[in-house]
Amino acid sequence: MPSQTGGGGVTGDELPIGRRVARWRVRRQMTQQMLADRLRRSKSWVDKVERGVRPLDRYPVIQELAQVLRIDPELLLGRHRPPATVGTLAGVDDIRAALARYGVRQSPVQAAEELRRQVGHAWLTYQHAHYPQLVRVLPGLLDGVQGAQIPELLVQAYRVTSSLLVKLGEADLGWLAADRAMSAANGDRVLSATAAVSVGQALRALGRERLALAATVAAGERLATDRQRPPREWAVCGTLLLQAALAAAGSGDGHRAEELTERAAGIAVRLRGYDDPHRTGFGPVAVELARVVAAVEWGDAGAAVRRHPAIVRRAGWRLLPAECRGAYLVDVARAYLEVGDLRGAARALVDADSVAPAEVRCRPSARTVIAEVARAHPPAPAGVARLATLVGLTR
């Protein structure tokens, strides 16, 4: 899953330290009282720190806070910047430039079939988790579809762009691409629903779970009004429900998350062998993955690790795209870490790296999990030390 960076155009480094404390407290599923108890301080002290009324100007106190929140003190100080993956940063800048050229034709209009082939290739590259390669391909693809102005291809190209940017920690830019997808849908109910999947993902990555919940539920309800829709469109509806469930879990509403997941499960059992032109990957196994990830988001890591072993034994597990399996395993590593099972967390990370290396090596959120596992009980478990070196956490 995407990283939960903040929105509103303010980067983590620009936030006051009190707001950084509040953000990490929420991510760790703690109330102010819980944090206060672990620090052996009052709830009033925590509240004043988070509001900036009480300054945090003593490093030992910052270290103590960081230890309880299980993060590097440098994150609270706003000095921490993960190193860019080789070959990725310049490519992201090129994608940003291509999005800035919206509406400006850069080359002769390509034939629709050729563009359709390129869009399909981009999605396959994404699903195989070949992110550095996709970064290089997307600027030219965006120029092509923006020149041709074919709604279906615009929506698909913007969606895969948004999904990649969210993966790489560029949530603001991912939101822009998702919003472009929604605009390109031009009111078409099915295209708008597929675009809403990307909108939900980007909003969740920005930490705007309630907005993501509202957007995905509304889009799903609009699509579900026609009971005669073909299976591939019901798959879009089910995907929207899963996105909504994850948003509900992230906002602290576990009951709503469970309700939405059950609705998605009801759709999944009715679908068999449908074509998937909208790139949803929806089905019974996807529902089970969402249950685990929602449990992690909600704060019930114990339930997540209990469900996990049965999922990877299912026949449909290996049929899922590498991207999906790799991202899920990173979330599972987070769950094992939460329950204090460092071996389980290390095993999940190593498995994720074997399935989809770029999921582990290119994503800032995965890098954070690796750092937490490596730091939790030195020396790092087998395999994690190697990953920590590969992603630049050790020198």
Provide tags for this entry.
395 residues; mainly alpha; 434 Repressor (Amino-terminal Domain); 21 helices; 0% strand; disordered N terminus; Transcriptional regulator, contains XRE-family HTH domain; Cro/C1-type_HTH; DNA binding; Lambda_DNA-bd_dom_sf
**Total of helices:** 21
Q: Which bin fits the share of residues in helices?
A: 55-70%
The proportion of residues in beta strands is under 5%
Distance between the termini: 27 Å
Topology:
Layout: H1 17-27, H2 32-39, H3 43-51, H4 59-69, H5 73-77, H6 89-100, H7 112-127, H8 131-148, H9 151-167, H10 171-185, H11 189-205, H12 209-224, H13 231-250, H14 254-268, H15 284-298, H16 301-312, H17 322-338, H18 342-355, H19 357-361, H20 364-376, H21 384-390
Helix pairs in contact: 1-3, 2-3, 6-8, 7-8, 7-9, 8-9, 9-10, 9-11, 10-11, 11-12, 11-13, 12-13, 13-14, 13-15, 14-15, 15-16, 15-17, 16-17, 17-18, 17-20, 20-21
Pfam family, one: HTH_31
InterPro entries: Cro/C1-type_HTH, Lambda_DNA-bd_dom_sf
Domain HTH cro/C1-type: 21-76
